Amino acid sequence: MSDIHDYLPRNRRAAARFVGRRLRAVDRLGAIPDDEEPRLTWGPLLMVADDDTGWLLDVDEGRSNLLLFDLDGPARVAEMADRPEHRPRTPVLPPDGPLGFLLREPIAGVDLVGRPGDPDHPHFHAMNGIRLRTASGNAAVVGTHLEDPRIPGTSVLLPAEVTAGAVFTPLAGDGTGTGFDRIEYGSGNDQDPGDPFGRTVLTLDSLGVARLDNDHVGRHRTWTGVVDPAMLARLTTALREAGYPAAPRLPVPAGSSLRSLSVSGELAGRVLLPWHGVSGLPGYGEAFAVLDSVVHQLSRGELPVAPDVLPPSVLDIHEH
């Protein structure tokens, strides 16, 4: 079984790659019982795009999540399809069926599909599947525990076939732009013995994959996790309100540490501001409150650099 801290970030990156591609094949791998429909039965799915790249979709039965493997070229696609346990290869979607649009229309957007989890097991049902949307408004849902929350298996469904309780969260494509490709947020000083937290550097990409590095009194620590897309949208809104990267010149009190914020992508730029005095700045106060809360949550409360003002917003936390 893949480690949860590896496969959910990997799933997100692989899922985002659907955007702009047209599928030419959606096949079930392995033998199918005669009385079962190929799109609803057990076994992995192979999805192949018109650029000859593809994806293998399977199930983490332990945590009820989709496993999404990115196949970056025809050799990898052929390798997966030709494995003995993956034969025969059966087409899942009749071109003239209700889901045939997946073989005709390019994917315009991708949403994550999950279900509210047990607070004691937040990774369970974190990513049951993905919803693939086209520009014409058609959509299909691919994943596990979709038509029945109790039953694993990779299915391809119309949205109306998904049982109640599923939560859809935009991931990539139309209407999901974060305004950034990557953010790096740094604060503190690992050379100052009076700094209670040392140096922290948070990096965050547009899919919510986060990494936190901390250096304090000769000790280095690293955490990784995945941030709720709703918080990415909140951060983007705050940066736009601030007029980022424009920023006022603020006095730096003696002994005060600095915050550095670097952004690549649409909102590209860099600002350097004192730690204190930003809370009253339009946009920046909110942006730094979000970032500081992510630091707090990603470190599991071990780096409370500022009050945590967010609802639980970081999943799949792992200290390396």
What is the number of strand segments? 17
**What is the succession of H and E elements?**
HEEEEHEEEEEEEEEEHEEHE
Strand order of the largest sheet: 16-15-11-12-13-14-17
Category from helices, strands and their pairing: alpha+beta
Distance between the termini: 19 Å
Tally of separate domains: 2
Descriptive account of the structure:
This protein has helices at 4-16, 74-81, 229-242, 284-298, and strands at residues 23-29, 45-49, 54-60, 65-71, 89-91, 107-114, 129-134, 139-143, 155-157, 167-173, 182-187, 199-205, 209-216, 219-227, 258-264, 269-274, 314-319. Helix 3 (229-242) packs antiparallel against helix 4 (284-298). It is α+β, with helices and mostly antiparallel strands. The protein has four helices and 17 strands. It is elongated and about 75 Å long. The strands form three sheets. A seven-stranded antiparallel β-sheet has the order 16-15-11-12-13-14-17. Strands 4-3-2-1-5 form a five-stranded antiparallel β-sheet. The protein folds into two domains: 4-173, no CATH class; 182-319, Mago nashi protein.
